[in-house]
Structure formats: structure tokens, C-alpha cells
Amino acid sequence: MAKIAVKKVAKKAVAKKVIKKVTPASSASATKVVKKVEAKKTSPVKKAVKKVAPAKTAKFVAHSSRLKEGVKAPDFKGLNQDGKEFGLADYKGKKVILYFYPKDNTPGCTAEACSLQDNMNTLKKEGYEVVGVSADDVKSHKKFADKFKLSFNLLADTDRTAMKAYDVWGTKMFMGRIFDGIIRTTFIIDEKGTIKHIIRAVDTKDHANQIRNL
């Protein structure tokens, strides 16, 4: 009888241990762990997002004459500030400073014209003649020439014939605005009528010395 009682007690003790192992609390914890693992397995895979670099804005480049040094200078003919007709042929055998400028009586154009006029005696001694060209009419040129006592011819290229021949009309930018206009350019033409130099980056305030230092 005593042996049977011991066996019953032992069975109860084992049963208690088993019950402890499978208590509702332990079961709930195990369920949470399983759910976490399942969540990791079933969570959506994040796709790598490619960063698109912003498109680069092309740098603006102003028009520039396609004429080159060494080519024959295109002929030109028109009226000067006094309404008299003249042309490149009138300067045969002489060196010509043919400069194209945007507009009479503007700061840069005035500085450029005065630089040439102030050094006219020196330029003449070196064999140069000066001709300025813009799209202003004869009347405008006359006022400009009289105001600053310009002694050289200003061509009234109102129909832009000379500008197109020298390819100095095109797209430009001024104060952030892009538009078509005269590209300030100077052509140095030798005694044989050949373009010797082209100055595209004009120093308006010291243009005479810029030419003399070529």
C-alpha cells in the first residue's frame, strides 16, 4: 500500500511540472515570439528608390561671329552721320578698325567711341582709320557724333546688311534677359582688305590700347 501511495505522489509531482511548463502565460509569450518571427518573414520588402539628380541647366553662350582671321573682309556701304555714302572700298590701302556696337549714347558704347576718339592721333600715325557701325539711323548718329566730337565715320546700318555680312547679329544676354541684338565685336582689317584680328571681348574703356597691343 505504501509503494502505491509513493507512486501516486510522484505522478502528481510530474503532472505539476508539466502543467507549469504549459501555463497560459508561457503559451501567450510563445505565441508572441512566433507572431514576431512571422511578421518579419511576411513584412513587405522595401524597394530601393533611385535618386534622380536634377537636370543640369545648360550655360548660356552668346552668339559669336563665325568669320575667322585671314579671310577677306566683307564689303559694306551705307550712309554716315552726315548722310554721305561711303564704304570699305574708300579705305583701300589703309588699316581699318571696324567696330560694331549696340546703340548710340549708351554707357558702354560711349566709352568705346571716346576711347578711340581720344587716341585718334596715335591711331592715325599707326595707319588706322576708324568706322563705327550700329543699327541707329543717320539722325541718331549725328547727335552722337556731335555730342562727343567724333571725327570718324559712323555707318547707319538700319537694315543690318553690314551686321549680317560680318555675322554680328544674334542671340545675347543682358541683365538676365536673352534677346537678339548686335554682338559688340571689332574687326581689324589690313591694307589688303583681309581680316587681321577679331576682338570679341571688347574693353570699352580702353579699346584703343587694346587694339594697339595686338
Overall helicity: 25-40%
Gyration radius, in Å: 44 Å
Sheet of most strands:
5 strands, mixed
H-E string: HHEEEHHEHEHEEEEH
Q: Which structural category fits the helices and strands?
A: alpha/beta
User: Class of the domain at 77-212, according to the CATH hierarchy?
Assistant: Alpha Beta
Shape: globular
Task: List key phrases describing it.
alpha/beta, 9 strands, 7 helices, 214 residues, single chain, two-stranded antiparallel ribbon, Glutaredoxin, 5-stranded mixed beta sheet, globular
Could you please describe the fold and organization of this structure?
The protein is α/β, with parallel strands linked by helices and about 210 residues long. The protein has a domain at about 75-210: 3-Layer(aba) Sandwich (Glutaredoxin), CATH 3.40.30. Helix content is about 35%, strand content about 20%. The protein has seven helices and nine strands, in the order H-H-E-E-E-H-H-E-H-E-H-E-E-E-E-H. It has helices at about 1-20, 25-40, 105-120, 120-125, 140-145, 160-165, 205-210, and strands spanning about 75-80, 85, 95-100, 130-135, 155, 170-175, 175-180, 185-190, 195-200. It has a five-stranded mixed beta sheet with strand order 5-4-3-8-9. The chain is globular, with a radius of gyration of 44 Å. The model is unreliable at about 1-10 and about 15-25 (pLDDT under 50).
